[in-house]
Amino acid sequence: MPEATRTLGEPPLLEVNGLVKYFPLTSGVIARRVVGQVHAVDGVNLVLNRGETLGLVGESGCGKSTVAKLLMGLEKPTAGQILFHGDDVSKMGRRQLKNYRRRVQIIFQDPYSSLNPRMTVGDIVAEGWDVHADIVPK
């Protein structure tokens, strides 16, 4: 396993500062209105250097999947900052975000929550090919 390394002056691989995600709590069927907030993630900080691996462990409902989705750019944070090689993930354009997602990997523990039951196996496999279109054989 490679040893975690960081060259002097080089930013961390991943840096998270004050990450917050609140989801609106709504009421009403026709006239939906926000009546509160669910605090899914509140104040996550971490630094990950090249060669390091991060595992999120915790009780059900504590925000692990939400943090993972935030780190992948699949959810927008309510507050806080996610930096990859010093670049703010929330400010990345579509092409930059696609490149970022190629370099970051998340493995969810429960395959039933990470695989879409409405997609065929072929569609699920092809989704990976879409991300890595530059290396897929024609």
TrEMBL record:
Pfam families hit by this protein: ABC_tran (PF00005)
Organism annotation: Blastococcus xanthinilyticus
InterPro entries with a match to the protein in the record: ABC_transp_ATP-bind, ABC_transporter-like_ATP-bd, P-loop_NTPase
Keywords: ATP-binding, Nucleotide-binding, Transport
Recorded GO MF terms: ATP binding; ATP hydrolysis activity
Family annotation (Gene3D superfamilies): P-loop containing nucleotide triphosphate hydrolases
Signal peptide coordinates: none
Residues covered by the ABC transporter domain: 42-124
Protein name: ABC transporter family protein
Family stated for the protein in its record: Belongs to the ABC transporter superfamily.
Phylogenetic lineage: Bacteria, Bacillati, Actinomycetota, Actinomycetes, Geodermatophilales
